[in-house]
Amino acid sequence: MTRLVELEESGPRRLEPSDIDDEKGDIAVCQCGLSDSFPFCDGSHRATIDEDDGTTYVYEDGERREVERVVTTDSSDE
Length: 78
Description:
The protein is mostly beta strands. It is built from no helices and 4 strands. It has strands at residues 13-14, 28-29, 56-60, 63-67. It has a two-stranded antiparallel sheet with strand order 1-2.
């Protein structure tokens, strides 16, 4: 099964103080979808710093490209 996940954030979400791990300290949840340690932030959102509003991007193998149109189909519709 293939999924298209659209995330619009360009930074992490910090958890509440009660969510802090005693060993790891401050923990942030990834909101950009690029983290190699998803669902936790690893700083990969820095690659999104110069994205333009209104443009859709795909990140594959460390490369960013713009997507003009995304079309998905359900195999039961074919």
